[in-house]
Amino acid sequence: MSVRIVGTGLIGTSIGLALSHKGFRVLLSDPSPTAQALAADLGAGQIDDDVAADAIFVAAPPDVAASVVAEQLKQWPSAVVADVASVKQQVADAVRALVPPEQLHRYVGSHPMAGRERSGAVAAQADLFEGRTWVVCPQQETDRHAVQLVQELAHATGAAIETMPADEHDAAVAVVSHIPQLAASVVAAQLRDLPDAAIALSGGGIRDVTRIAESDPMMWTQILAGNAAAVSPVLDRVVEQLGAVAGSLRRLAADSSAAEGSRGEVARLISDGQLGHARIPGKHGAAPATYATVIVPIPDEPGSFARLFNDVGDAGINLEDLRMEHGVGAMVGLVELSVLPGVVDRLRDVLEDKGWSVHE
Ligand SMILES: NC(=O)C1=CN([C@@H]2O[C@H](COP(=O)(O)OP(=O)(O)OC[C@H]3O[C@@H](n4cnc5c(N)ncnc54)[C@H](O)[C@@H]3O)[C@@H](O)[C@H]2O)C=CC1
Ligand SMILES: O=C(O)C(=O)Cc1ccc(O)cc1
């Protein structure tokens, strides 16, 4: 089976790499000769504008996704054409407006729920979709076989498939993807004019909350504008909740003994956050798991990670998750290892035996 990727940036190249590794014939095209050449050099497929493919993934920016889908449906009369844009209803409506009705059965909207804060082929990874959800959003007109083909290809990248209507997808990603981007950006924006001495205090909290603040402004403007109808009511609720907390803190600042109910307001938001956070699925979509963690300082020098991982592996212990922070003022990294609670005592013993210092 052959697959064409149109738009060989982060997502297109990652799909190309994943499918090439699985033995599919992958053809690449991008209006940028550099993007196209880079994707081919990385092993995502071969540059080709002329050969017909069974399926086409349009991985272009959201604001051109629909017109590129329409062009591809017209140019390749027997291919199934899928897009991967982060918003689904607006793209589907635009495709319907651009495409003759007899071509619509070959269009499948889809969205891999995996990405990175960096753009372009250089940031692509063959395993980007491994264990992540890939949403498929069939329209009324979509042919069942076209849906199946896209589901099979998405599955071949290692993703888990969810099928749902476009409007349901858009309402969901408004909360789980688009509001988090705005939250990360607004928190990170507060750092812009902070004195260096204050920035130096940055720890895990600010890093965790702002990781995706590095994302591309052009891409995210398109995503947020494309899903404005679903994002704006959620954002109104966020503003309302933050407004209530701001009011409480203002009253506390003015007279902490008279601000009745204010502490309750603050505690309620933090507690609602705990309840929401506990609902985020664990690895591979499993029920949320509580892992036990230990922190191991490692020297900032070649081979440290490898020695630590070998010691964990030699003990037959599976790492469930991993995080790293850089020590301040010392050439060490702080590695947080997450394991199943039943093996954490053994992990601690094994590492201490091997000479590592282990912290809770
Ligand atoms: N970045 C992310 O984390 C995720 C992005 N997406 C979606 O994937 C799509 C691509 O995003 P990225 O790969 O991140 O962007 P990117 O900026 O890395 O790559 C986009 C590519 O599309 C090409 N392109 C521009 N105009 C085009 C046109 N008219 N026809 C064909 N190609 C064109 C560009 O030259 C570039 O190589 C977007 O629709 C985005 O919403 C989906 C999931 C995650
Ligand atoms: O970086 C992350 O954690 C993401 O979840 C990235 C992401 C960005 C855009 C999407 O449409 C889907 C996923």
Automatic annotation (TrEMBL):
Record keywords, A-Z: Amino-acid biosynthesis, Aromatic amino acid biosynthesis, NAD, Oxidoreductase, Tyrosine biosynthesis
UniProt entry tagged with the keyword Oxidoreductase: yes
EC number: 1.3.1.12
Pathway the protein acts in: Amino-acid biosynthesis; L-tyrosine biosynthesis; (4-hydroxyphenyl)pyruvate from prephenate (NAD(+) route): step 1/1
Catalytic activity: prephenate + NAD(+) = 3-(4-hydroxyphenyl)pyruvate + CO2 + NADH
Keyword DNA repair among UniProt keywords: no
Gene3D superfamilies to which the protein is assigned, alphabetical: 6-phosphogluconate dehydrogenase C-terminal like domain, NAD(P)-binding Rossmann-like Domain
Residues in Prephenate/arogenate dehydrogenase domain copies: 1-288
Enzyme class: oxidoreductase
GO molecular function, one term: prephenate dehydrogenase (NAD+) activity
Domain called ACT: residue spans: 293-360
Pfam families registered for this protein in UniProt: PDH_C, PDH_N
UniProt similarity note: Belongs to the prephenate/arogenate dehydrogenase family.
Protein name: Prephenate dehydrogenase
